[in-house]
Amino acid sequence: MKHRNLLPYRARAFLLVLALFLAACSPETDDRTARIKDPWIRLAPPNAGMLAGYLVLENPGARPLELVAVSSPDFASVEVHRTEIVDGVARMIAEPALTVPPGGHAVFEPGGRHLMLHGPARPFDEGERVALEFLFADGAQLAFEAPLRRGPDGGHHHDH
Predict the structure, then answer these.
(1) Phi, psi (5° rounding) for residue 75?
(2) Which end of the chain has fewer surrounding CB within 10 Å, N or C?
(3) Element (H or E) spanning 22, and its range?
(4) What is the pLDDT of residues 10-52, one digit of tens each?
(5) Prediction pTM value
(6) How far, in Å, CA of 140 to CA of 123, rounded?
(7) Cα 151 vs. chain centroid, distance in angstroms?
(8) In Å, what is the CA distance from 2 to each residue of 13, 16, 46, 93?
């Protein structure tokens, strides 16, 4: 009878060790896991060749994150750009890589850094969601969706 009682104990111990091992290997427990907050894409006329996307990219980890590529099945290409004013003229500057420091964040906002989404595959309607994926230098990927809307607050104006 004692051997019967040991089997469930051994099985439970094995399952506990296996669960801890799998949790340690899971990318979700990796301290480099990036987080996306408040993603959105500005709705543009149906014939627009480019749209712009905004969000906050957070790095809760202890090591820098280097964003090296962005893709979407709904666009021919996606790039990270920043707006610079040179001699009074706004210019879009491509950023081939973006490093987010440990515990830091990168803000993608109108008039600043943003996603430039080239060649939409189709016209979009307000409220639709676009699939995007970030690729980091260490090979990690982060998939998320961003809704299309007219402006930062959904295009609604509030009087205060």
Answers:
(1) -140, 150
(2) C
(3) helix 2-25
(4) 545 444 443 444 444 444 434 558 999 999 999 999 889 999 9
(5) 0.75
(6) 30
(7) 19
(8) 17, 21, 74, 72
